[in-house]
Amino acid sequence: FFAILLGVSMSGNITNEELEEIKEGFEKIDLNSNGYINTSELGELFREIGFQMPGYKIREIIQSVDLDKDGQINFNEFITIFTDLKNDDVAQSFKKALNKKEGILAIGGTSEISSEGTQHSISEAERFAFANWINSSLEKDPDCQQFLPINPNTDALFKVVGDGILLCKMINISVPDTIDERAINKKKLTTFTTQENLNLALNSASAIGCQVVNIGAQDLKEGKPHLVLGLLWQIIRIGLFAHIELSRNEAIAALLKEGESLEELMKLSPEELLLRWVNFHLEKVGNRRISNFSGDVKDSEVYFHLLQQIAPTGSEEDVPRIEIDTSGLYEKDLTQRAELMLKQADRLDCRQFVTPADVVSGNAKLNMAFVATLFNKYPALTKPEDQEWNLQSETREERTFRNWMNSLGVNPYVHHIYGDLMDAMVLFQLYDKIKVPVDWDNRVNKPPFKMQGGGRMKQIENCNYAVELGMSAGFSLVGIGGQDIYSGNQTLTLALVWQLMKRYTLNILEDLGDGEAAGDDLIIQWVNKTLAEAGKTSSIKTFKDKEITSSLPVLDLIDAIQPGSVNFELVKTGSLSDEDKLDNAKYAVSMARKIGTKVYALPEDLVEPNSKMVMTIFACLMGRGMKRV
Ligand SMILES: *[C@@H]1O[C@H](CO)[C@@H](O)[C@H](O)[C@H]1NC(C)=O
Ligand SMILES: *[C@@H]1O[C@H](CO)[C@@H](O)[C@H](O)[C@H]1NC(C)=O
Ligand SMILES: *[C@@H]1O[C@H](CO)[C@@H](O)[C@H](O)[C@H]1NC(C)=O
Ligand SMILES: *[C@@H]1O[C@H](CO)[C@@H](O)[C@H](O)[C@H]1NC(C)=O
Ligand SMILES: CC(=O)N[C@H]1CO[C@H](CO)[C@@H](O)[C@@H]1O
């Protein structure tokens, strides 16, 4: 039954046979047989299949399919859970549950690959788009020549990710310098060295904020279409959005509206900024505006105008004028019109992600990626000169915290650490992850919140509760009130988030040991002992130890945990320049990920050394080392 649900949830089509199965399933879940599934019945289902879902998530699922808004699911609505492909969360949840349940794994695994129909509907459009994107992104990479170009019309894409190299390269393109070239195994790959590459790819993907909890190395080796596309999209999106962010691209301030503050603009997500950007350019030519990347772009009209507005005018040196031919606007057939529009985009070297069919069908994901491509290449924005401001760009620490949260799959995705935590919803989810019980039903006010009055109070109440939970978890939160989190006080917000991350890291250790409370001393002792036992000469006294700046203790420890893994010929020793130190640190971080640890810290954290992040690195390595036995 669940296999069917899974199959259906991926293909979007239901046969009569399947309908019967779903009906049976519905009856099983509908415990009181009243023809409706309510929150507690759905919760029971998830529990039964071994998957803990917080109450609010279950309500969210119900809300999302509850067409007649009566707070429960009838049979017709139930079917939509499995047909609505867009409801990815649900499909993912089921998948997770299935993977956990013994015996079903095999069924779940094959249902994805078994029928041709299933694969097609996973999204041929995405497969096509991503294959082409990879083709052009990695065209010049010497290590990728053996599998490029990827034929976008076949399933070749799913095969080429199997050895991990291509994924490592794509991650490094999205967030440059994430992966050290020296850590990738490139020649004569064996099962083991392939596994290492995939570890490196998956742990690096986490480190840049991808949610990979459902994806294992085996899934990538087997090239499971659904998972490969999901991971690739996360990686690609992070790269596309990297500069659609006020603090990294001040020209975005040109999008400020009358009476709006920079803070307000800063809170917009990249999607919202892109919509605003399109409308900003549309304002110059007429009254048309868009509010989504689906229905509103289908007729290509908006695109023609946008291209015309952003095409280089020749006023800049070395960038010749490109005149956009808008005669395609008069083409009646929408598909042909889209093709004419894309021909113009091609002249800007921006024909990416969408085919005419994707434009006309209003594929929101791919159209947004297309618009992001246009923005990244030709923003055509000028930073307003008349304004004084001092924008702080995101610190390394803020970014690391954010990536950590996002990799745990918090919802909504955190773009701005302060603005996105102010209603505490993300904090509550993090408490869930560190096993601090959250009273979702009675204490949490759920969004949406009104901008004024009551909404503000409700968010502050949430923040107060978030602080209270921290106290109950034994965090040190002296002088931190809910109001500080709500108003985005940087120091205090970071203090809370750090304690969440630290607890998360230590929990992993405790899960491995016999419940012994892990602490700094215990970790340092373990590090010293492990180093000594492996005959290494390095050791550390604290997480601020000067020795750490060379990364040698980390590299030695990695080699102690997995003997022979570190190539010490690549490691600089003796008296080190800052550059040498950074070089070692990059190698160390990538190597740690390669042997299977989820390190979020960055090379700079070792060079500094930043004792908090250094602690997480050693703790992760300790976790890995303990698993060895
Ligand atoms: C990653 O990117 C950096 C900077 O762009 C580059 O120096 C490095 O060689 C790249 N590594 C890989 C594995 O592509
Ligand atoms: C997109 O926005 C338009 C209005 O601007 C609306 O009519 C249409 O339903 C929206 N489409 C989707 C898929 O949200
Ligand atoms: C944040 O809180 C600290 C401690 O209460 C305070 O010293 C600091 O001024 C606050 N920062 C802002 C920007 O309000
Ligand atoms: C680790 O080793 C160093 C050097 O031998 C020593 O000074 C330090 O006290 C040790 N720390 C712990 C916690 O074992
Ligand atoms: C088969 C295929 O689509 N090849 C393309 C891969 O990407 C390069 C660079 O964009 C194109 O020139 C190829 O046509």
TrEMBL record:
Pfam families: CH (PF00307), EF-hand_7 (PF13499). InterPro entries: Actinin_actin-bd_CS, CH_dom, CH_dom_sf, EF-hand-dom_pair, EF_Hand_1_Ca_BS, EF_hand_dom, Fimbrin/Plastin. One of its GO terms (molecular function) is calcium ion binding. Actin-bundling protein. Its main location: cytoplasm. Residues 124-240, 268-379, 395-505, 517-626 form the Calponin-homology (CH) domain. This is Plastin-3. The gene is LOC115366691. One of its GO terms (biological process) is actin filament bundle assembly. Keywords: Actin-binding, Calcium, Cytoplasm, Metal-binding, Phosphoprotein, Repeat. Residues 17-52, 57-88 form the EF-hand domain. It comes from Myripristis murdjan (pinecone soldierfish). It is found in: Cytoplasm.
